[in-house]
Design goal:
Blueprint (H helix, E strand, L loop, with lengths): L2 H22 L15 H29 L9 H4 L5 H14 L4 E6 L13 H10 L7 E7 L2 E11 L3 H9 L13 E10 L14
Antiparallel strand pairs: 1-4, 2-3, 3-4
Helix pairs in contact: 2-4
Length: 209
């Protein structure tokens, strides 16, 4: 091997070594004790964005596609009829799944005119939020509430009528208290509840002593 080729191989190996060291040992790392915090409003916005994206993808790429092709339809009694859950039921079921994981995070649909009577406000904050977002729907109604001995941050996001199929279902359902929804009307809300964990006081030990 000529001296020039040896030099090129050496330079290449040195480059790989430097690149690998950069990947394996990044220049800036956080200490293990570093606490990174985000405003609760931001956290709730992130969760809400994921919920809305999942429901939109399910509606357009699963329900509408399957029904257009005549493969399977979505129906209210999907568990008994082996059909797809309606988009609203998809959201409710995914929220229950998250709640069962014990993470202190829950989300569900609520309304002033629920078809299913279980989908009503369960805290005063949710009730006020439902009324507020009817006229102030550009932002969620947020606050802190207490349930038993636990405190929760709650965000009530307006849930709009975005498809004619959704409007038709609510307006025609025999159990619907309201039957004149139009496109872009606020039909209810997605409420996100995040448990606020109690932080130990500074300097107090909690190791049994």
């Amino acid at each position: 091997m000529t001296s020039s080729k040896k030099w090129l191989w050496g330079a290449a190996l040195l480059g790989f070594a430097i690149g690998g060291a950069t990947v394996l040992s990044p220049g800036r790392t956080f200490p293990e004790t570093t606490s990174i915090t985000l405003p609760m409003d931001t956290v709730a916005d992130y969760i809400h964005a994921i919920i809305e994206a999942d429901r939109d993808v399910y509606t357009r790429h699963v329900v509408e596609r399957m029904q257009t092709k005549g493969i399977v339809v979505a129906s209210e009694n999907w568990t008994d009829q082996s059909t797809l859950p309606l988009p609203a039921q998809f959201l409710i079921e995914s929220g229950r799944n998250v709640g069962r994981q014990g993470l202190g995070v829950e989300y569900r649909l609520i309304s002033l005119w629920p078809i299913n009577k279980r989908n009503v406000a369960t805290t005063p904050l949710q009730s006020i939020g439902l009324g507020t977002i009817l006229t102030q729907s550009n932002r969620p109604y947020t606050g802190v509430t207490r349930v038993a001995d636990k405190r929760y941050y709650e965000a009530v996001y307006p849930d709009r009528a975005v498809t004619q199929a959704c409007i038709g279902c609510h307006n025609a359902h025999p159990d619907s208290p309201k039957r004149d929804f139009k496109l872009n009307d606020v039909m209810g809300a997605i409420v996100i509840s995040i448990e606020l964990k109690q932080q130990p006081a500074s300097g107090v030990r909690h190791d049994g002593y």
